[in-house]
Task: inverse folding
């Protein structure tokens, strides 16, 4: 098949005509159509040129464009305050934060603050997650433009090999889609062979874990894929206490995917969830609500530190667990975990049980362990 050159400019004009018509319809209905863009500092010429080009395009389409310029000395709190104000503004219908942000400002945290319904770039993790799971959502404009251009050619993408040159949160990244399933109309068939690049959907719960390999009989296990001790711990509860068991199953599946660390307390029925970033709790709550129809909430807990417990002699782990029952939990694979209230309690445990190893990272393979 010969290469085909796609006229992006011609396609852009067609899309602009449709967008302009839609803008006029919204304005006629009395609805605001305004893009608010934040430009922090003016030292990056590319960002300024992009902002100016954006303003010209908005003017051509009848979209109101408002540029909010903040000095390079703007703090994270000042930028966040401006974003939150735009979230609440009824006159603002779309928000964009020009990159890069000043040194010391967490761009990811700022993007997480953008109202997902006003997130015109599709950079809020909630919108990215919707795309991964095939839901309607605002998508990164560059990646979406590429898809529209390819669709215009009429080329069937199924079975094709895609080459991504360059990758970023804005341009797009190759991703692994959760539980992909291939359908041919109403037919389904079992595949005898798989070629490089094929995506195989395997219904799985409690059978395969990250790092496992499917082989023709050889014993293989990929190493160098560790789990990391979480930085933040919260207790999770279902809004409806009668659905506590359903919540447990949902958490177990998320833990098997590597979405979070989930610890089941030895005493009681509480689950403690551990993540590396505090904003992940919001993402998890939204995911559990939307995927499992299970509203839940996260509560603070007295635990601050989590460590996997390992030893050459499993009896030592049982002895330690018996002496610290209030602080013992198991992860989704059954490994014993010590939850400490602070570093002092962790250090004291190390002194009292010097033959134990308190691990901050754990290979995705069974440890020598004992049930608490």
Result:
């Amino acid at each position: 098949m010969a290469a085909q050159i796609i006229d992006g400019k011609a396609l852009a004009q067609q899309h602009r005509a449709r967008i302009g018509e839609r803008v006029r319809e919204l304005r006629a209905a009395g609805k605001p159509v305004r893009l608010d863009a934040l430009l922090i500092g003016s030292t990056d010429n590319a960002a300024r040129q992009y902002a100016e080009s954006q303003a010209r395009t908005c003017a051509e389409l009848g979209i109101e464009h408002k540029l909010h310029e903040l000095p390079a000395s703007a703090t994270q709190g000042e930028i966040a305050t401006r974003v939150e104000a735009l979230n609440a503004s009824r006159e603002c219908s779309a928000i964009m934060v020009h990159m890069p942000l000043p040194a010391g400002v967490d761009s990811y945290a700022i993007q997480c603050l953008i109202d997902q319904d006003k997130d015109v770039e599709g950079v809020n993790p909630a919108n990215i997650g919707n795309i991964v799971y095939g839901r309607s959502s605002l998508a990164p404009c560059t990646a979406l433009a590429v898809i529209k251009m390819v669709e215009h050619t009429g080329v069937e993408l199924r079975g094709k090999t895609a080459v991504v040159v360059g990758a970023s949160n804005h341009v797009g990244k190759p991703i692994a889609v959760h539980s992909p399933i291939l359908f041919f109309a109403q037919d389904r068939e079992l595949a005898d062979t798989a070629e490089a690049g094929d995506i195989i959907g395997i219904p799985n719960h409690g059978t395969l874990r990250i790092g496992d390999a499917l082989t023709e009989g050889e014993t293989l296990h990929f190493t160098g894929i560790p789990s990391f001790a979480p930085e933040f711990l919260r207790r999770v509860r279902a809004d409806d206490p009668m659905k506590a068991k359903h919540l447990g199953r949902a958490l177990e599946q998320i833990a098997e995917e590597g979405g979070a660390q989930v610890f089941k307390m030895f005493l009681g029925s509480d689950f403690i969830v551990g993540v590396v970033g505090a904003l992940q709790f919001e993402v998890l709550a939204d995911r559990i609500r939307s995927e499992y129809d299970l509203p839940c909430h996260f509560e603070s807990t007295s635990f601050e530190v989590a460590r996997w417990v390992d030893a050459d002699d499993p009896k030592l782990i049982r002895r330690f667990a018996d002496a610290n029952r209030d602080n013992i939990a198991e992860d989704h694979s059954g490994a014993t975990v010590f939850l400490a209230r602070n570093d002092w309690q962790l250090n004291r445990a190390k002194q009292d049980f010097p033959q134990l190893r308190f691990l901050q990272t754990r290979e995705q393979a069974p440890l020598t362990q004992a049930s608490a």
